[in-house]
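Encode chain A's predicted structure.
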Amino acid sequence: QVQLRESGGGLVQAGGSTILSCAASGRTASGYVMAWFRQAPGKEREFVAAISWSGGSPPYADSVKGRFTISRDNAQNTVYLQMSSLKAEDTAVYYCAARPGSATYSYHGSYDYWGQGTQVTVSS
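Encoded structure for chain A:
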């Protein structure tokens, strides 16, 4: 069992930056893919980015490519999402997710563990 807890976010001005963190506890996150998803009001949960244990070349949603960066600190069992050039359409609840293995799937149903989510609101 893996427990995930997100932190960061809040209210950010358009064009600004912020960073989200997700700390994993319980069974070590070693060997797990970590991912970020987001869900805006009235919309489905959508993939943002994912990263394998080794890092590699993380996949990103087209909507955030070039603006968001996912990274992880395996020693701290923590994954980060650096968000910059924020837009109003980035407003959503951001969720951290984890799945065992190395495949960085973009389908939310592929992930076994989820955090409670953290709100990011971008004011225009």
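The two ends are 40 Å apart (CA to CA).
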